[in-house]
User: Which sequence fits this backbone?
């Protein structure tokens, strides 16, 4: 009876962990999709001109540099405050405690790119001549790529757990041991 209670408790704990992993994977997938949708225009606006220079010239003639930078700022801020929020919530406190982790690295790097870009947008005269550039796309792409890596990791963990569970189910409930004297124990 006690063993059955322990097995039931272990099964409940296993089911709870599996559900938690599935929820984490789902949340990461949702955040990754949102971040990808938001960074696509940022990436095209900033990097598209390098791939196809006429796009750069047409955008700047039709819309202007400042409005394009503002659009990038808004979309990048949405990525950092939405899907990327987890990096700041965990990373900045860890940094302040003196125990930085991967979240801290992502938080510092993306905030540096975002902050410098915001300074270039709001107060370009505060920067040396010729150094007024924005790096909004860098901050947004870093967050999106790290989310993609974490989503892939969560997916792999889920598949591994499922494979281990299937292997455990193959384990026989009973075994026979043949002793040296030829007798068998069950």
Assistant:
């Amino acid at each position: 009876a006690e063993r059955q209670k322990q097995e039931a408790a272990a099964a409940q704990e296993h089911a709870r962990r599996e559900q938690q992993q599935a929820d984490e994977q789902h949340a990461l997938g949702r955040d990754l999709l949102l971040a990808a949708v938001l960074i696509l225009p940022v990436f095209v606006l900033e990097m598209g001109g390098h791939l196809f220079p006429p796009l750069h010239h047409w955008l700047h003639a039709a819309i202007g540099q400042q409005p394009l930078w503002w659009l990038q700022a808004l979309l990048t801020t949405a990525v950092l405050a939405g899907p990327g929020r987890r990096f700041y919530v965990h990373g900045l406190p860890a940094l302040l405690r003196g125990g930085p982790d991967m979240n801290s690295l992502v938080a510092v790097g993306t905030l540096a790119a975002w902050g410098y870009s915001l300074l270039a947008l709001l107060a370009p005269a505060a920067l040396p001549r010729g150094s007024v550039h924005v790096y909004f796309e860098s901050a947004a792409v870093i967050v999106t790529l790290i989310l993609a890596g974490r989503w892939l990791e969560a997916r792999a963990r889920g598949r591994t757990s499922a494979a281990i569970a299937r292997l455990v189910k193959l384990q026989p409930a009973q075994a026979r041991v043949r002793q040296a004297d030829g007798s068998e124990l069950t």
The beta strands are 177-178, 184-185.
